[in-house]
Write a structure and sequence with these properties.
Helix content is 9%, strand content 43%. By secondary structure, the chain is mainly beta.
Length: 385
């Protein structure tokens, strides 16, 4: 009897195990978006159901009151629910305030030149991206009885402060005119009642790229223990660390970005043409990005009449541009460590010092002598570097 009971128990246990194995995988439900985007256009006012003069209000999403009608676009402003992205594309929304209140961060994609009166965020963070300009402008005259916030900033994050403003595109935020003489570009507020609130400007304003100017910030508290951070700059531009075609100066040498993806730069000269010696490093760091020096630009060192020694330590150099050293009559010593130079532009070495000494990799001495001679470097002597 005991054996029979054990067999029954074993059968039940085995059956349960098989059922568990055969059950489909349980999917973890993603966090549901809760909140709203409310657009308030103070330039369009009329009577509401209660006979009050109110600005035009409508929602682009509202999960807290789903019976409210919603629109997905308005005067260059649009909303993509699947990505929770607000796009501003050449939107002329002077007199319009965006109210963002949600459990998830909003992405604001800025394209072209745009105008808004302001943005007020509650709970949600705001992630600016794109390659445009957002002008925050409260200079418009609002003739109706319903007015926007009086002394509040044009971009505001309210309590509880657990989110941040993030900028990682080529975006400019511009305070054209604030609503009040002490208006700030951005204000971040915490009511002081959130023990786990994130705090500090370095945590609440984050940017990926290069800031156009040093942040001007201030802080204060109110009588209820609330804390404020103010960004007082009138204009902030965030651009990528490398911009194709832009010239950067590092250690008095100018470099122009030729390839962002592969981090390649071209030498464009120095800050002063009176230098006697120039040494190009093997690589150069621009805004923290390590770049390869692959070319010397056209006329980069043209008419550097006091230059006597030139050294390029880059092993990635492939090109020397037209008239790169044209007219450098005192330039007597060249050193090239690259084995990859295949292109030398017209008159690159014309009117330079005769009898100059050139150092290069041993396997390239013959090839470089022929290449450089055809571009104006006469009577030079070559030796291995």
């Amino acid at each position: 009897m005991r054996d029979s009971f054990i067999k029954k128990i074993s059968f039940v246990v085995l059956s349960i195990m098989l059922m568990v194995i055969m059950l489909p995988a349980v999917r973890v439900k993603a966090e549901t978006f809760e909140g709203y985007i409310m657009v308030v256009d103070y330039m369009e006012q009329g009577l509401n159901d209660f006979g009050e003069v109110r600005a035009k209000e409508f929602y682009m999403i509202n999960t807290w009151d789903p019976d409210k009608p919603v629109v997905t676009s308005y005067k260059g402003l649009s909303y993509n629910k699947s990505t929770n992205t607000i796009t501003l594309k050449n939107a002329d929304l002077k007199g319009v305030v965006l109210h963002l209140d949600a459990t998830a961060d909003f992405t604001v994609n800025v394209k072209g030149t745009n105008y808004l009166y302001g943005i007020v965020g509650m709970r949600a963070g705001i992630h600016f991206t794109g390659n445009g300009t957002l002008n925050l402008d409260s200079s418009v005259t609002i003739s109706g009885e319903d007015k926007p916030f009086d002394d509040d900033p044009v971009i505001m994050l309210g309590d509880p402060v657990k989110k941040k403003i993030l900028i990682d595109g080529d975006v400019t935020l511009n305070l054209v005119k604030g609503n009040g003489k002490d208006a700030n570009l951005i204000t971040i507020y915490d009511n002081g009642n959130e023990p786990d609130a994130v705090w500090g400007i370095d945590k609440l304003f984050v940017y990926k790229g290069v800031l156009s100017e040093k942040l001007k910030t201030d802080t204060s508290t109110d009588e209820w223990g609330g804390r404020f951070i103010y960004i007082k700059n009138k204009k902030l531009t965030i651009e990528p660390k490398l911009v194709k075609g832009k010239t950067y100066t590092v250690d008095k040498i100018k470099y122009t970005v030729t390839d962002v993806k592969n981090k390649k730069v071209e030498v464009a000269g120095t800050t002063k043409k009176t230098v006697k010696s120039v040494t190009i490093p093997a690589t150069v760091k621009i805004n923290g990005v390590k770049c390869k020096v692959t070319s010397i630009g056209d006329k980069a060192f043209k008419d550097y009449t006091k230059l006597t020694t030139f050294t390029c330590n880059s092993t990635s150099l492939t090109t020397i541009g037209e008239k790169a050293f044209y007219g450098d009559k005192k330039l007597a010593k060249y050193t090239f460590k690259s084995k990859k130079i295949t292109k030398v532009g017209k008159n690159a070495f014309k009117n330079t010092k005769k009898g100059a000494k050139v150092k290069a990799p041993s396997k390239k001495l013959s090839a470089y002598e022929k290449l450089f001679k055809n571009r104006g470097l006469k009577s030079a002597t070559y030796s291995k570097v």
